[in-house]
Amino acid sequence: MDLQLNNRIVLVTGGSEGLGKGIAKQYAKEGAVVWISSRNEEKLQAAHQDIIEQTGNEQIFYRVCNMRDGEAIQGLMNAIIAKHDRIDVLINNAGGPPSGLFLEMDDDAWQGAFEQNLLSAVRTCRLAIPYMQKQGGGRIVNLTSSSIKQAIDSLVLSNSIRPGVYGLTKTLAREFAKDNILVNTVGAGKIGTARMQSLNESRAEQTGVNLEEVENEMVASIPLGRYGTPEEFAQAVVFFGSFSNTYITGQAMLIDGGSIAAL
């Protein structure tokens, strides 16, 4: 299938590792011009070189950007527009908020989760959409978690903030459908990333259960019997954020190996 992504301008935030890097790599394979951002320049440089080497696509760019910083997000978008005068695809990806129980979370934790996971998407969309309107269309995919469908124990911040991102997705999809801007959210289940490892370690610490037992329990809860891979997750995201997708908008897709039982 031709995803119609050759030479399209794509921004993947949080693109230096994990799911973001996997998505950026998949777009690069499709011939897109890919920008990645994150807070860590060393990781960005390494991801930039790795994506070029693995895909043969040299149209890969990066810029340091803290997604809690509105001025930094503005600078990132300015750099993209200055070089290309357009943006075709926006992938909003930011690291998940810390795990923990409700009474452990103070105002700073709540404010940080809001800024990192919801306000960052608001800001990038607000900057990108006028260009997408001007050029006759665009695609936006907001990355979330399976917590948008079913609450996850010890993840009160994610359970509370992520559904807000889906609410934003649904609203933008309806408001900008007339401009051929399709907006969807893709939620990650148990994908084999550093984030998954960190959550397992936190759970082991909180419960006093051996880490290996926690990991075995996590895998056993997945009907497919294994963690997903960033590459598998990326394939779904890239289709939603492609121009072969012409009629799917306002939707929430979980990539979870069948883990979530909620309808």
TrEMBL record:
Keywords: Oxidoreductase. One of its GO terms (biological process) is bile acid metabolic process. GO terms for molecular function: oxidoreductase activity. It comes from the Bacteria. Coiled coil: none annotated. Belongs to the short-chain dehydrogenases/reductases (SDR) family. This is SDR family oxidoreductase. InterPro entries: NAD(P)-bd_dom_sf, SDR, SDR_fam.
